[in-house]
Amino acid sequence: MGLQRVTRSTVIDAPIERVWAVLRDFNSHRDWHPIIAESEIENGEASDRVGCVRNFKLKDGNALREQLLVLDDRNHVSTYCILDSTIPLERYVATVRLAPVTDGNRTFWHWESTFATPPGRERELADAVGSGVYEAGFRALAEYLRAGSAAAGATTAVPRGEPVPGEAVVLAGRGAPEMLKRVAISAPPPGPSEVRIRQRAIGVNFIDVYVRTGLYGALVERGGVPGFEAAGTVLDVGTEVTHLRPGDRVAYACPPAGAYATVRTLPAEQVLRLPAHVADETAAAVMLKGLTAEYILFRLHPPRAGEAVLVHAAAGGLGMLVAQWARALGAVVIGTVGSEHKADLARAWCDHVVVARDGRFADAVLAATAGRGADLIIDGLGGAAREENLRAIALTGHWVSVGQAGGAWPPIDADWLMSKSVTFSRPVIFHFTAPPRRLREMAERVFDALRDGVLQPKITRYALSAAADAHRDLESRRSVGQLVLLA
Fold first, then answer.
1. How far apart are CA 381 and CA 341, in angstroms?
2. Is residue 106 over pLDDT 60?
3. Residue range(s) defining the domain that contains residue 133
């Protein structure tokens, strides 16, 4: 088999430093290239270390292992080769070269490769590489960078070693939403393993209400900043951070608290780059709730086709996403809501909707399941609904408690659960997302579900200064869908 050469070039409307910050990361293609289904660097090595191997799958089912051979930061050149592939590309070696364009802050990008193919497949595979990989990659990275630039605004430059001023909402005391006060802050430079982010959108969750009222008071002291979920743009990173670069669009859903702010410095390990198809507001709306839905439906209790899943607050931020995803997985979804208005909305993603104004729903669940009950209950109501939930659950059903909006849980008697052989779970999302690799897997599934239209959030927006209003609407059950503060 003789070698053939494929070359493609383009001009990217972004400065060379920004383009190179993405391309020098040997695993960044999972975030921006449309043909990549999943990818990881083997053996936990850094993705900018010469010799590292990326193991990835394409969306068409093919799998490849490629090794980074050259990474030249001075000349903006990287070279890699294929080690193993289900596609018959023999002796494949590719090189990426960047150069600045003199008539504007743009970048010339040249991508070329040599490889051998089986006889008769030369044109087919050359087109697949040139069009399907290189040209598609040009378009996708340009879009990825445009999305990041729009989020970052006109500037991402930060004085080295200097604090960045901003605003935050702090907890002045325990109690009513009026305890949330806006103050001036500054975000310190990132430490070695930290990242500093200019935040654009911040998720509001019931855990924030629990913090404010004192139920989870230990998570945020008086004068501290609440919030565990936000999205924005990287300003700068610490010396040990390799998976993020200035200008990257990112999101997180993790402790410690501190998300209700325009700028923030935090540990980088749990901060994820966003794919181009996920906007900042969407990420802030679904990170915490989407990851919760993922671990319930794919790790705690993957529903079998036809199983009955009871979702409380099915028009709320978490309930809506869980119901949409469970239905897409083939479950029969029964959702409870508190009003006819919410019922009208929830019928779009629930097979049965129960308006439970008086807190009673078990009879309706039993009627919808021919007396069997729900195989899986996803319960954010808490202690006030426990008797109804026990009536509504099927024998050997799984009851997952993810909140207590209707009252704190009293002690659970094992014999009480034994009356129906019920499995009861009281999970904490941050335990599931603690390993970075698992977090990435979970987030990729959430991002894919957004891209495919499985998850369709309904976002209500507030200014950061109106955080108290968002809390009032959430706590009073007036809100529908996901609540986001715009910084």
1. 20
2. yes
3. 3-152
